[in-house]
Amino acid sequence: MTKTALITGASRGLGLALARSLATRGWRLILTARGADALKPAADELGALALAGDVADPAHQDRLARAVRDHGGLDLLVNNASGLGAVPLPPLASYPLDVLADLFRTNVLAPLALVQAVLPDLRERGGAVVNISSDAATGAYEGWGGYGATKAALDQISHILAAEEPEVAVWWVDPGEMDTAMLADAVGAEEAAAAPGPETVVPTLLRLIETRPASGRVSHP
């Protein structure tokens, strides 16, 4: 039976790198990202279904869940889409709370909403969830408090889901620093370019997906 994956933030970076590897392994892919202009060529390259939209939008979450059911179910949900928050990275003492609230909607509530929407499909097929976390979830890095708080919340949500849903594997993965547009926005293009490319993280994700170890937090490498 062909396996199906839903990947958010799939138009670039780690989401696209993982999608490319799964496509070579025969997976059926549902890809989403905010920008249709970048998402469509990626999906066309991989023969995937492209559904552009904001994962924090309940209407888009419903649309993705309907697409899953139209494709006959789901084996893998990858919550990769993420926001950075206020830039330049501010200290918590002056963090704009409206921006932080939006960041929690994108980085915490949206992944949980998607899990809730597709959980019956994942349960039926013994599927898995990969939530992309960060070392900022556990480390006290100046300026990263807002982003790190959202990732710490995502870690805890993942941990509880793993306990509550024993038939569904749940991994929350810290990929380490990657040369991505998000990192460049945070630290500058020159420093970001010194980090490994997102494709270097894909083998770690494939190992989880293909060998299905116990649910838990995973750090790369």
TrEMBL record:
Task: State any single GO MF term.
Answer: oxidoreductase activity
Any one GO CC term of this protein is: membrane
Q: Which UniProt keywords apply?
A: Oxidoreductase
Q: Quote any Pfam family the record assigns.
A: adh_short
Question: Which superkingdom heads the taxonomic lineage of this protein's source?
Answer: Bacteria
In the record, the note on similarity to other proteins reads: Belongs to the short-chain dehydrogenases/reductases (SDR) family.
User: What protein is this chain from?
Assistant: NAD(P)-dependent dehydrogenase (Short-subunit alcohol dehydrogenase family)
